[in-house]
What does this fold into?
Amino acid sequence: QVHVHESGGGLVQAGNSLRLSCVPSFRTFTYYALAWFRQAPGKEREFVGAISWNGGSIDYADSVKGRFTISRDNAKNPTYLQMDSLKPEDTAAYYCAIALNNLSAPVRPDEYMYWGHGTPVTVSS
It folds into this structure.
């Protein structure tokens, strides 16, 4: 059984930063990919970024490249999503997701089996 918990969301002005945390917990150790997705009201869930089990593969959506950074140490928790230079278009609920027994960094949501409940991020103009 896997439990996933995100935290760190809030209300910020455009140009400021937030750091989200994702803490997955496992009954036993396993390799896993970790990804962030977001969903704004009235929109479909979209990929933000993903990182492989050892950090060797990292992918970001074009909309966040250069602004968001995923950091991970597979031996330590939590994993962080550092969000800099936030824009109003970044406003969404952010979800952390886990793909077990995965050595890559998938970008499709159907590759991820375990999800947190989401943490809201609101960026004002």
